[in-house]
Amino acid sequence: MTHPWFRGRAPRILAHRGLVPADAEGIAENTAAAFAAAHAAGAQYVESDCHTTADGVVVLFHDDDLSRVTGDPRKVAEVTAAELTEIMSTRGGLLTLAQALDAFPTLRFNLDVKVASAAQQLGRAIARHADRVLVASFSDARRREAVAAAVAAGGTPAASAGTGTIARLLLAHTLRSRALARRALRGVDAVQVPERYGILRVVTRRFVATAHAAGVEVHVWTVNDADAMRRLLAMGVDGLVTDRADLALAVVAGRA
After folding, report:
1. Burial grade of 94 (CB within 10 A; 0-12, 13-18, 19 or more)
2. Can you name the CATH fold of 10-159?
3. Which residue stretches of the chain have pLDDT < 70?
4. What are the E-state strand segments in 137-247?
5. Catalytic annotation on 3?
6. Which pTM does this prediction carry?
7. How many CB atoms within 10 Å of residue 24?
């Protein structure tokens, strides 16, 4: 049966770290303001990233340090949640994972487990929201640990493939073996990939067909150009991860 995260027709527009409008001064990605903007634009899905603070709180933050977003060179793991809340108070507002799930009860979350220390806590936190959470990670081990923690706490989230799983899928795709592809994709509901890895083109019509034959969706990141969006949708991809959720929604609706 299809996981509830996938209810509704594709394509799915995933607001990458929320939505930071071009005219929004001082608003950072992955903040309460960015998620509110994505929601206001009509996004049903938001993508975000999970780190843990010095006092063990899971927060939505992409980088492992604060330098790019705040100018502070410290690691996320070196500051407390209260300190980070104060730092981010003028940049759109920090969200802990628990706060995000409660504050945006109609949004469906795509959560990337960035560090091993976040996996268990993330799993427990999402258990009661599991019908609207997809767990992602470049690390299959972190993804599995988070999903197992959620299941142990009473909820089963959706999941997307890590790099090891994607590598096995690409091998199966190269060998034109749908049986190997199904085996590689066991336990995941989606693959989230860039259109290219360097000179290697990943997303083609045949790649999408291989994933679909295994019952798995294909989401492509990070797509911010309208022409690229239309081209990928024409290939049959199921989702676009984008910094421009407003533009992508307009493309899907035929307004751009």
Report:
1. buried
2. TIM Barrel (3.20.20)
3. 1
4. 158-159, 190-194, 196-197, 200-201, 217-221, 239-242
5. no
6. 0.96
7. 13
- Structure-block tokens of residue 235: 């290939």
Angle made by CA atoms 238, 243, 245, in degrees to the nearest 5: 60
**Cβ within 8 Å of residue 118, ≥6 positions away:** 50, 51, 52, 58, 142, 146
Is 16 a catalytic site residue?
yes
Task: Name the residue among 9, 101, 106, 4 with its Cα closest to residue 58.
Answer: 101
Helix (H, G, I), strand (E, B) or coil at 84: helix
β-pair type (58-60, 45-52): antiparallel
CB atoms within 10 A of CB 105: 8
H/E segment holding residue 47: strand 45-52
CA distance 76 to 115: 11
Q: Which of 16, 39, 129, 173 is catalytic?
A: 16
- Residue 140 structure tokens: 């299959």
* CB count in 10 Å sphere of residue 177: 14
Give the model's pLDDT for residue 1: 59
Q: Where are any strands of DSSP class E within 90-189? A: 108-113, 133-136, 158-159
pLDDT tens string 128-168: 999 999 999 999 999 999 999 999 999 999 999 999 999 99
Of 39, 62, 129, 173, catalytic: 62
Query: Where do the structural domains in the chain lie, given as residue ranges?
Result: 10-159, 160-250
